[in-house]
Design brief:
Layout lengths: L1 H21 E14 L4 E6 L2 E6 L4 H4 L8 E9 L2 E10 L2
Antiparallel strand pairs: 1-2, 1-4, 2-3, 4-5
């Protein structure tokens, strides 16, 4: 029984480390196309392409002050190679 518990603990720890290593973030310069506070989403134009992403964390409150046409730096949370959410948005002045 003790071996099973130790094996489970090692497997859980290894899976957690793998997930932590796969989760990254990066900043991107973008133009705001649309904000949707009810749906907690933000549509950004980056290099001519529009992308709608969910917002989480600090970004939930930060999108309330944005409007279409604003230029921002958005911090995106990635898992592996996929963009998962915007976690922070700073309006450029």
């Amino acid at each position: 029984m003790k071996r099973v518990v130790i094996a489970f603990a090692v497997a859980t720890l290894s899976a957690g480390l793998t997930l932590a290593q796969a989760t990254k973030s990066h900043d991107v310069a973008a133009e705001v196309v649309k904000t949707d506070t009810a749906a907690k989403s933000l549509t950004l134009k980056v290099e001519g392409k529009e992308t709608t992403m969910p917002v989480e964390g600090d970004a939930v409150n930060q999108i309330k002050d944005l409007k279409a046409g604003d230029h921002v730096t958005a911090t995106c949370r990635d898992e592996g190679t996929a963009h998962k959410a915007v976690t922070k948005v700073v309006k450029k002045t």
